[in-house]
């Protein structure tokens, strides 16, 4: 039986290089020559089962990787064994890359079965030297990831349990919609309660209680690894998202990325 994560790749029929170009051009303009250089990058396709390490912090980073299908996350673990999930990678996201520097890798694990394309950092650095604008595009991608991390810090430090779960649901819906991997009202939701706890700083019991409350209030529904937002206005309110008067006519889903401040503004992009 073919999983929905594999079907996603078959239906889109795109290469690793095409995925990378599409990701970078969401916020950067690439010339024909720059796109062609990226398209010629050698890539090794690797598959990982759920729970497998894609990279470890103790490894020396030799490759960046592009997530082709599935969901992965970056994590850090304390000496006592407590885990904090820092970053969630969806289809199209780029990880383990720092233009101009190859240092320590990151602890990245597969949350679902994941297919990734490994691209040599040496090959990337060669392109950055020949085409500086490509390096700028990667820095803008890093800025977008930093904005996402900043939003999660606000959630961990200043939001209650209900807001944390609702904000994460909004984030996943918005990002999956942007990557074309999910219908607007349905979200791929492979997370265990323990994983959600590691991401939101809550206990598994607290996560269970919060999800139950959101379901009972008619805000969302969970079934077979998918989450359905049944009332977008309600989940936006539960998440404590901003609502500006100029946004009243925009669907709640379309406002999530802006409300969560998950993307730098155009002015911020121009300053990078």
Written overview of the protein:
The structure is a single chain. With 272 residues, the chain is an alpha+beta fold. The chain has two domains: 4-143, Jelly Rolls, CATH 2.60.120; 159-268, Winged helix-like DNA-binding domain superfamily/Winged helix DNA-binding domain (Arc Repressor Mutant, subunit A, Orthogonal Bundle), CATH 1.10.10.10. The protein is 46% helix and 19% strand. The chain is built from eleven helices and eleven strands. The strands form three sheets. The chain has a four-stranded antiparallel sheet with strand order 1-8-3-6. Strand 10 (220-223) and strand 11 form a beta hairpin.
Summarize the structure.
With 272 residues, this protein is α+β, with helices and mostly antiparallel strands.
Strand arrangement in the largest pleated sheet: 1-8-3-6
The largest pleated sheet is described as: 4 strands, antiparallel
The number of helical runs is: 11
Strand content: 15-25%
Count up the domains: 2
Structural class: alpha+beta
User: Which CATH class of the largest domain?
Assistant: Mainly Beta
Rg of Cα set: 19 Å
In the CATH classification, which architecture of the largest domain applies?
Sandwich
Mean pLDDT equals 83
Residue runs with pLDDT of under 50 for 5 or more positions: 1-13, 245-254, 261-272
Q: Determine the CATH topology of the largest domain.
A: Jelly Rolls
Helix amount: 40-55%
- Identify the CATH homologous superfamily of the largest domain: Jelly Rolls
Number of strands: 11
Terminal CA distance reads 45 Å
Mass-distribution shape: globular
> What's the helix-strand series?
HHHEEEEEEEEHHHEHHEEHHH
């Amino acid at each position: 039986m073919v999983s929905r994560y594999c079907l996603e790749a078959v239906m889109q029929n795109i290469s690793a290089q095409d995925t990378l170009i599409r990701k970078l051009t969401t916020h950067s303009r690439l010339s024909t020559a720059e796109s062609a250089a990226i398209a010629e990058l050698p890539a090794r396709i690797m598959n990982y089962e759920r729970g497998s390490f894609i990279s470890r912090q103790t490894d020396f980073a030799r490759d960046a990787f592009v997530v082709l299908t599935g969901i992965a996350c970056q994590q850090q673990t304390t000496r006592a064994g407590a885990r904090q999930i820092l970053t969630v990678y969806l289809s199209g996201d780029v990880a383990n890359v720092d233009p101009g520097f190859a240092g320590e890798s990151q602890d990245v694990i597969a949350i679902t079965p994941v297919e990734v394309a490994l691209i040599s950092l040496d090959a990337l650095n060669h392109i950055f030297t020949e085409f500086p604008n490509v390096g700028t595009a990667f820095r803008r991608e890093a800025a977008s990831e930093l904005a996402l991390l900043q939003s999660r810090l606000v959630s961990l430090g200043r939001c209650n349990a209900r807001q944390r779960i609702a904000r994460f649901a909004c984030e996943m819906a918005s990002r999956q919609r942007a990557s074309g991997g999910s219908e607007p009202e349905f979200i791929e939701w492979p997370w265990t309660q323990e994983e959600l706890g590691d991401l939101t700083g809550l206990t598994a019991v607290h996560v269970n209680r919060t999800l139950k409350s959101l379901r009972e209030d008619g805000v969302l529904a969970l079934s077979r690894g998918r989450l359905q937002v049944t009332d977008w206005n309600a989940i936006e309110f539960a998440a404590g998202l901003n609502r500006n008067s100029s946004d009243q006519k925009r669907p709640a889903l379309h406002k999530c990325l802006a409300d969560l401040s998950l993307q730098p503004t155009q002015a911020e992009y121009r300053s990078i």
